[in-house]
Every structure is written in structure tokens, then in C-alpha cells.
């Protein structure tokens, strides 16, 4: 079987929920394309439609309208042909709570034809020491890592993770990122949701900015920052009036904005040259270089700030 060009494609997908309070348009005109062998992050706040999208990608929900293709197949009808190739981390492994970690992994891997060795997955996620512990006695963060392990033991081509680092302390989170990156380097495709800018910046090869059920913008973190947030900017407070020659020089370097209160900024990649002009003879003070981040790109794409909750243990 030849591999499809895209791991996941959503074209103008809509999904609503009818609730006693009215219809919720959870996913609305969602269009995105995820290439294989990459880590893709759906980045957006609570309620943006990330989980609903992931559930449609694995076939747990059907779209009301539009096209979803996962590894080239329609997840609503592909059945076992897809379920052996795609794994999603169980949101809450409430079932089998009385089992020990090792027992649950053995049971879970028995559901699949070509599972990955459970010991290898447990080892990579630093869970080996917990094999004899009952699932119910695990901490939230350890349990979250077990959920990722349960998905990975299926040995999928496409791994779907819904906010995988929720509840992890900073060290565990960074370790999880390095494990996910190493799996990607061995050919796995990962599609994950997150509301952490830091996670998307550190981990994702491509980011889909999700806003009110649709994809507002997509690209590598660097592309999104460059195209949406612009380049670095030098901010300054004018002390002595800039003369025409200074202003002309600054305009040659980039885009100059001077405000009525005599503050200003120059958007330019040539920050050293800009600083030299602005600082000469004490013309300006409070000089500060601002390098745009994914948060700035997110704000430019959606008009909203996305505040990442602090990871547990901070
Ligand atoms: N089963 C459901 N029944 C009714 N409404 C739902 C259901 N699942 C999700 N919703 C609503 O659909 C919208 C999108 O939810 P979804 O969980 O897809 O977003 P999300 O981006 O994953 O958010 P979170 O980060 O909070 O999980 C929200 O308003 C949510 O309340």
C-alpha cells in the first residue's frame, strides 16, 4: 500500500452539538493539512474545538459536513483498517483501575496485532518503576504518561494526543517532549492539541492556530511568527529630537513608528545598526529589543491572548 501524501486532511469540516442551552458550533469550517512524519499542534484555548477535531480524525465522532481523511481513509467508515494504524491517548484511563501498570500495558497491547514491546514504551516514558503499582494509585502526571504509553504500545503510524502534558511537572514535560521528538524522528506522525505556547514552540514542526472551531492560520512556528508578528523590533523613548538624516537612516533599516508621546519602535532584522543610530549622542533612552514569539503571532491571527496555564509543580 502506498503511503498517502497527507497524514490528516480536514476540508471545511463542521460539527455541532445540540444541547439544552442551544446548538454549539464546536468545529466550524475547519480546514487543515498535516504531513506525515511531523509533529503537528492544534493550538487554541479551551472550547476552541481541538478535542472535537481530534475525535473526528480518529473516527470517534462523525462530522456534520465536510471531509476528513486520516492516512488517506475516511475515519467514519474505515473501521479496523484505520484503528490498527492510528492510536489516541485515552483521556481518562478509568477503566481497569485496579490493574497494575504492567498488567494494563500487557492487556492493552493484546488488543493489537503488531504492538510495540510494552517494556520499551514504559522505559522510554520513565514508567518502569511503576509496573507493579495499581493504576488507581498513580499521581495525575504519572497517569498522564501512562495514557501516552497506552496509545504508543499500539505501535501506530499516527499518534493522536489530546493535551499530553497536562498535569506534568516541568521536568516530566520536557522529557515527554524529547520522547515524542525521538518517535517523530523514527517516522511517527503526531497530531496533538495544546494550549501551551511553550509546548507548541518547543515541540511542533507545524502549528494550526485554532480559533472558534476553525484554523485561523498554519505554518511552522517560525513561519507564523515571521508572517503574523513581523520581525524583531527596537523600542525606544526619544530624548533629543531625531533629525531628518536619522529618520531617513532608520526608515532605510525598517518600519519606523513614532508615537505622540515620543515613544517609538523600529521593526527591523538589523537591530545592531538601529541601536547604533538610536543610542548615538543620547538621542533615545529605554532602548529595548523585542523578539516576537508565537504568542504574538497567535494574537495577530485571532485578536486574543492565549494564556497558558502553568504546569503542575511550578
Ligand atoms: N459532547 C459534547 N456535548 C456538547 N457540547 C460539547 C461536547 N463536547 C464538546 N462540546 C462543546 O464544544 C465546544 C468545543 O469543545 P472541544 O472540547 O472540542 O474544545 P477544545 O478546544 O478541545 O477545548 P478543551 O481544551 O477545553 O478540551 C465547547 O464549547 C464544548 O463545550
From TrEMBL:
Cellular compartments per GO CC: plasma membrane
Gene Ontology terms describing biological process: response to antibiotic
Membrane topology: Peripheral membrane protein
Keywords: Antibiotic resistance, ATP-binding, Nucleotide-binding, Transport
Compartments where located: Cell membrane
Molecular functions per Gene Ontology: ATP binding; ATP hydrolysis activity
Limits of the ABC transporter domain: 8-237
SUPFAM superfamilies per UniProt: P-loop containing nucleoside triphosphate hydrolases
Primary location recorded for the protein, binned into one broad class: membrane
Range of residues in the leader sequence: none
Pfam families, alphabetized: ABC_tran
CDD domains: ABC_DR_subfamily_A (cd03230)
Matches recorded under InterPro entries: AAA+_ATPase (IPR003593), ABC_transporter-like_ATP-bd (IPR003439), ABC_transporter_ATP-binding (IPR050763), P-loop_NTPase (IPR027417)
PANTHER family membership: ABC TRANSPORTER ATP-BINDING PROTEIN
UniProt-recorded name of the protein: ABC-2 type transport system ATP-binding protein
